[in-house]
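Recall that a protein's primary structure is simply its ordered list of amino acids. Everything else, from secondary elements to tertiary packing, is in principle encoded there. The following example makes that idea concrete.
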Amino acid sequence: QVQLVESGGGLVQAGGSLRLSCAASGSTFSIKRIGWYRQAPGKQRELVASIISGGSPNYADSVKGRATISRNNAKNTAYLQMNSLKPEDTAVYYCNVLAGTQYSPTNYWGQGTQVTVSS
């Protein structure tokens, strides 16, 4: 089992920056992939960025050049740095991890953190 708690959301003006954090606890040693997703009102949840253990990060086209996903293994925390924020970045941001064994992987989700970008 892995528990995730996001933080760092808030209200920011367009052009500003935010750093979202995702603190993991439990069987963190089994985490294979970390992802940040977002869901705007009336829209489907979409992938923002992801990174697999030992791999390169992957970004949605809409945030390329403005987002950076990272992790601090010592703190069991993942981050999403968002710069040059736009009103269309407004959404609830969710942390997701894929953890477990090769034969029994499980997706875990955090509770989400609201990001609101004003124009």
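The radius of gyration is 14 Å. Residues 13 and 118 are 5 Å apart (CA to CA).
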